[in-house]
Amino acid sequence: DTILDAVMDRGGVCVLKSEMWSGRTTLTHEDLGLEASDVNRRVVSLGHKKLARPQDMSSFQNPIASARQALLRNSREFLGMRFVPNARISVLDGAFSDYKAKFDEAVDLFISNDYPNLADRLLPEWVEMARSAASRTGTSQQDALDNLLERVRSFYPMQADMRRRFSFSWSWISIRAPSEVRTAGLSVEAAASRIEADRERRDALLEEARSFARDCTSAAREELSQVLMRVTDAGQTGERTRVSICFEIERILRLNFLDDEELVRLGNEAKEVLRSGQSNGDLRSSLEEVRGRIEMSIESAQQEVIDRLVRHTRSAVLHNGDEDAA
Length: 326
What we know:
The protein is α+β, with helices and mostly antiparallel strands. The chain has helices at about 5-10, 55-75, 85-115, 120, 125-135, 140-155, 190-230, 240-255, 260-275, 280-325, and strands spanning about 10-20, 25, 45, 50, 75-80, 80-85, 165-175.
């Protein structure tokens, strides 16, 4: 087992995906049968044409934004993705299911109720452009508008084809270092090259895991310190603020998948101070002392977490060896 295995035993990487119709299309003013001077820049600019107003798209965009915010609050960045502690996976599964239900409902309502009317909702802009085209070509404004709207509506996908343009999904993956290199059928030189490349990838991945563990440890303590700073730098701290900060401390502790006992101790100490009913001056003084201990512990905590993960991997190896012997 490796430090990467020790990290992955404590959580999983979340891949959250979403696809939505953009409400825009790429074209030029010639596609609309217009001259450049006729174009309303609020609707057509830089080769893109708006097919829907922002407010028409918000109903299904909001659940996606909420899901991504929930993921950010319950995870740490790892290899460009989001690592979620085991204790938060079921929580996020439930939250994502709720957001997906809202997303699907909003998409279905949008397609059935809003989508057929999108072009008409942009009618004032089309009328303005048709008026410009009519004055230039000598045609009637109505004919210019009818011609423009006919072209515009051709840019919208068929309503029956819209549902496949929307999706919301998530999955959980576990990243492991490769343990075996396949060299069958390769020449001696090619096999040696593949083994060396695999070793380099493995070493890089294990170093990423070490850096991730160190960074998570320091980030949690820095976050805790910054949260307390909201009190120590404030003139007055009412009960609502104290309760809010206690909730924020609990969120930080829920992400403590590396079993940082000192972080838990410092966080609980800060919560006890916040709930003690001290005056603003005494409260700031007490929390400043806690912040000082947090800041002083960051560097040593990074090495402690690596040592703890190394002990975990050794224990796993011994356990697996005992099972094999049995």
